[in-house]
Specification:
Elements lengths: L4 E11 L4 E6 L12 E5 L5 E12 L2 E6 L5 H4 L6 E5 L13 H4 L3 E4 L4 E10 L4 E6 L4 E5 L5 E5 L4 E4 L12
Parallel strand pairs: 7-12
Antiparallel strand pairs: 1-2, 1-6, 2-5, 3-4, 3-6, 4-5, 7-8, 8-9, 9-10, 11-12
Length: 174
Amino acid sequence: MTDDLITIGKALRPRGLKGELKVLSLTDFPSRFSELKEVILTSPDGCNIICKVKGIRFQKGFVLLSLEGYDTIEKTEGFRNWLVRIPQDKIKGLPEGHYYWFDLLGMKVYSDSGLFIGELIDIFPTGSNDVFVVKGRVKEHLIPATLEVVKDVDVANKRMTIHIIKGLIEEDEM
C-alpha cells in the first residue's frame, strides 16, 4: 500500500488543547484537505496509521487537522514530522500539459534527435519553473522545465523528449 500513497502534507506539531495537528501543506491544491474523509499518517520509519478526519481549518498558510480519536495534545504529540498522505487514486486530475512529480520521476529522457540523455531522478522548484535533475552516463544534468526545452512527456511510456538549447548539455557529457 505504501507505493501508491501520495504525500500532501507534513505534520509539524500539535496545536491547541484539543490536539489539532498543524500541517505544512505540500500540495498545489491545499483545498483538497477540506474534501478528505481520512488520511494515512506515515512515521519517519515508515509505519502507517489510517485516521478518520474530524475537521479541517486553515490558518496563516497552514492546515489544522483534527483526527477522530486524537483529541488531546498528548495523543497527537507523537505525530511530529509524520507525513500526511492519501491513496494515489484520490488525487485530482491536472490540466493538459501539467504532471505530478511522481509521474515524471524515473522517466527516460531523450533529445529530440533521439540521443539518450539519462533518467529523471529529482525535481526542484524555482521561482519561475521547476528544474529536472537527469542522471546521465557521465554526470547529472539540470534541465529547465520550460516549453522551450521540454517538447514531449509520455507518462504511459515513462519517456520525455527535450530540445537541447545551446549551453544546456555538451555532446561529451551525454
